[in-house]
């Protein structure tokens, strides 16, 4: 199994997950689901996140993670899975609001985004339950607690 993560930073790199950390999290999400994969993870500011969220989802606000699955042209075989765009400021704010360790929340966002790249979604309740359980299982394999538990 070979996973290649291209880490791109549009903002200052201080205090952000390393390519090695991102690769560890991607590997956990893909293990048993895909043998080989390549993806890009772009870390951005709220302005870029808002622009992309508006352009591709019609929502005029920044968001934690956007997933862009690669659409393979017919007759071409590549291990390219797609791209994730993660807004560092939103992830940091959510971690603080939810009283979670920052890197645990980063891991959750990477796992969440990778599952979207694999075709999982949370549009209806059944899909949401399936996706959230996968997230819990993957995060538990990394010794990260259930991200959906509400803590005060």
From TrEMBL:
Pfam families xrefs: YbeY (PF02130)
Any single GO CC term annotated in Swiss-Prot or TrEMBL for this entry: cytoplasm
Documented EC number(s): 3.1.-.-
Cofactor(s), names only, from the UniProt record: Zn(2+)
Entry binding sites for Zn(2+): 112, 116, 122
GO biological process: rRNA processing
Cofactor info, note text: Binds 1 zinc ion.
Domain of life of the organism encoding this protein: Bacteria
Primary site of residence: cytoplasm
Protein localization: Cytoplasm
One of the record's GO molecular function terms: zinc ion binding
Enzyme class, UniProt record, top EC level: hydrolase
Keywords carried by this UniProt record: Cytoplasm, Endonuclease, Hydrolase, Metal-binding, Nuclease, Ribosome biogenesis, rRNA processing, Zinc
Cross-referenced InterPro entries: MetalPrtase_cat_dom_sf_prd, YbeY, YbeY_CS
Assigned protein family: Belongs to the endoribonuclease YbeY family.
Role, per record: Single strand-specific metallo-endoribonuclease involved in late-stage 70S ribosome quality control and in maturation of the 3' terminus of the 16S rRNA.
NCBIfam families recorded: rRNA maturation RNase YbeY
Protein name per UniProt: Endoribonuclease YbeY
Species: Amphritea opalescens
């Amino acid at each position: 199994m070979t996973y290649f993560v291209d880490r791109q930073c549009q903002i200052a790199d201080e205090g952000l997950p390393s390519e090695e950390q991102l690769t560890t999290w991607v590997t956990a999400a893909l293990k048993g689901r895909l043998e080989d994969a390549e993806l890009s993870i772009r870390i951005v500011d709220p302005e870029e996140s808002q622009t992309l969220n508006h352009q591709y989802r019609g929502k005029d606000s920044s968001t934690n993670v956007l997933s862009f699955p690669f659409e393979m042209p017919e007759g071409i075989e590549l291990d390219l899975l797609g791209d994730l765009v993660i807004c560092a400021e939103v992830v940091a704010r959510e971690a603080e609001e939810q009283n979670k360790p920052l890197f645990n929340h980063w891991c959750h966002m990477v796992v969440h985004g990778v599952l979207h790249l694999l075709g999982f979604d949370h549009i209806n309740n059944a899909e949401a339950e399936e996706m959230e359980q996968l997230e819990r299982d993957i995060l538990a394999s990394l010794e990260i607690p259930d991200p959906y538990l509400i803590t005060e």
